[in-house]
Amino acid sequence: MKKFWSDSSSLGKLSILIGLFVVAPLIVLPWYPEDAKYTLSFLLPGGGSILLGLLLSIFGKKDTEVPTDWKSQMGRSSLTVLFAWGWGVLIGALPFVMGEQLRMIPALFEAVSGWTTTGLSAMDVSIVPTIYLFHRSFMQYCGGLGFIMMMIIFISNKQSMNLYSAEGHPDKIMPNIKKTVQAIFIIYNICLVLGSIAYRIAGMTWFDSICHCMCSLSTGGFSTKLMSIGEYNSLSIEIITIVLMLIGTTNFAALLLLARGKVRSFFRVSEVKFMFILLAVFIPPTAVSLAHGLNISLAEGFRKSAFDVVSALSTTGYSTMSYADWPHFAIGVLILMMVIGGGIGSTAGGIKISRVYLMLRMCALQIKKKLSPDRNVEAPYYVKASGKTPIDRELADDTTGFVMAYLVIYIIGSLVMTVTADCTLMEAMFDFASSLSTVGLSIGITGPMTNNATLIVEMIGMLLGRLEIFIVVVGFTFGFGMLKDMFRRKRNG
Predict the structure, then answer these.
(1) Of 222, 462, 244, nearest to 349 (Cα)?
(2) Selected residue with higher pLDDT from 435 and 365
(3) Which of 123, 242, 269, 362 is the most buried (most CB within 10 A)?
(4) How many CA atoms lie within 13 A of 97 on its CB side?
């Protein structure tokens, strides 16, 4: 236990960062002075987190030693990540409770949905004060990058790389981790500025433009409107949103190639190619299904299909219409897209496009081996932003293990939701896929009237999905191990 808390100064810095995120919505008060009555609802939890962080940073022990064994490195890093996200959820939920907007469980749900960039909501946004609408959007924007990445922008230490990897970012795209994170941060914010301007030109107010851009880029899906993007009924707004969702769901390392003008290298990345293949394969039949099932024109079917399939695959969760009358085929496509998810190392959730691609490649290779002599089968590889990468045994095992864990959790969670939400299996599969893949689409189960048991099941799914399952398992296992050791020493001593 002592070894972990020797790095209490890092926990302090994370606490300060989270506190700053929570007080940030107060910047809207000059434009919306009627919301000044909620000042203390943000200032007290945010200020408390900053104060605690300062105390830990000043009086806590610095990290002077990084363990050399992999188990301890991963254990400590995973536990730090779990602390950051757990503390962030609690502090992010308190403004809703203190401002009498939500009870504790729905408030925690809203915070989890915000930080994990899911977008499922227990609020009626038509009556939510403006400062809370900004709070929800800003949580998603910061959650898209992640607490650890945001901390590394300003502070880096011996554990930075371990923490960066533990939060689900596999690629180091610059010579060192700090420059990598700063490059990602710059790209992210340039896209925010350009996207907000595009939305404003397309007809949104400045406030709605900034909020929707933050949530599109982070593949979050919170909206300031009850009907989400469908409220605007604007083709230009839908196109802008599609572009931003695709940017958000693309691996940061691949985006850097595009930012440097290396367009050919960008489209050579296996994950990028496979993403566009998936869209090309599934958008047309979904469009036909919608045209037939909803009695709309094929052009309108393509418009709705393109938007919602991209929204599901990118795990953003924006919608242009209710899914109550959608044909089962189209609903099935959305479930499949949500389960697949976006790019690894991006803001998106799901199994991830690269893992699905690798599973299909390995399946094809196995078939090829059965049909050809071993000597004729070339060494398999796939293309990352950093170049060709061999598909070795370790990568295959890691990929298979994650996919199996995801599917087991998905099946169990869906079955549990049929009980807690008293819904059909398809409805449960849709909404739990949305939770586990951090999407935010709902077939009607999740909303202001959803019971606490269902919200808790979905919260567990969202956290497991955002933190990539194994990080949660490793963190809890390491934490319980330290507690057992501590109690054992006390009992023996």
Answers:
(1) 462
(2) 435
(3) 269
(4) 16
